[in-house]
Design a protein that fits this description.
The structure holds 2 protein chains of 2 kinds. Chain A is mainly β. Chain A has no helices and 11 strands. In chain A, strands 2, 4, 5, 9, 10 and 11 form a 6-stranded mixed sheet that branches. Chain A has a 5-stranded antiparallel sheet with strand order 1-3-8-7-6, with no helix packed on it. By secondary structure, chain B is mostly beta strands. Classes of the chains: A mainly beta, B mainly beta.
Chain lengths: 112, 114
């Protein structure tokens, strides 16, 4: 069964600290993996898209890694800011052009 | 311009009402999507339009009726909804064809059915 699992479910860190969110997937065939940031009550915003051949991709203070062999991805946030408080969702696209398999998300809270 | 707009932002409707949600994009995308998202859950795909034709209907009840009048607009017509249909409705768009195409999401319409 195609699944995307994320950990931790929630995370609280102090402003300025770094954190890493994890994503494991069992999607086959694999096409690409995305990380989205979603503020409460708003639409998701894409942070990165990674294909099979990409190991690392950065977007400002966000760095995503992908290990296609172990089917694991991580999202590292550096020097966190209060505005980073949101849900971070790992999404995998398999064979279908349109259908994405969504993880349950990690709710990140940054405290001053 | 990488913006997808949705109107209205909030909608409260009774179970006998008829209303419509609207979505617009001007990025030249030929794939457009409707998602439903309940609190603390990931978005669930409802419909996909490809080149203005309905490509995917994820067994959505007929009280939800999508429409794609042109390549920039996507509507979702609502009729005789149930309270459990209350959710955040998200519209998205992307390029068509093979490729790691980005799906751009709108801000959503918060729907409450009373």
């Amino acid at each position: 069964k195609n699944q995307v699992e994320q950990s931790p479910q929630s995370l609280i860190i102090l402003e300025g600290k770094n954190c890493t969110l994890q994503c494991n997937y069992t999607v086959s065939p694999f096409s690409n993996l995305r990380w989205y940031k979603q503020d409460t009550g708003r639409g998701p915003v894409s942070l990165t898209i990674m294909t099979f051949s990409e190991n690392t991709k950065s977007n400002g203070r966000y760095t995503a890694t992908l290990d296609a062999d172990t089917k694991q991805s991580s999202l590292h946030i550096t020097a966190s800011q209060l505005s980073d408080s949101a849900s971070y969702i790992c999404v995998v696209r398999g064979a279908s052009n349109y259908q994405l398999i969504w993880g349950a998300g990690t709710k990140l809270i940054i405290k001053p | 311009d990488t913006e997808v707009t949705q109107t209205p932002k909030h909608l409260v409707m009774g179970m006998t009402n008829k209303k419509s949600l609207k979505c617009e994009q001007h990025m030249g995308h030929r794939a457009m999507y409707w998602y439903k998202q309940k609190a603390k859950k990931p978005p669930e795909l409802m419909f996909v339009y490809s080149y203005e034709k309905l490509s995917i209907n994820e067994s959505v009840p007929s009280r939800f009726s999508p429409e794609c009048p042109n390549s920039s607009l996507l509507n979702l017509h609502l009729h005789a909804l149930q309270p459990e249909d209350s959710a955040l409705y998200l519209c998205a768009s992307s390029q068509e064809g093979q490729g790691p195409w980005e799906q751009y999401f709108g801000p959503g319409t918060r729907l409450t059915v009373t």
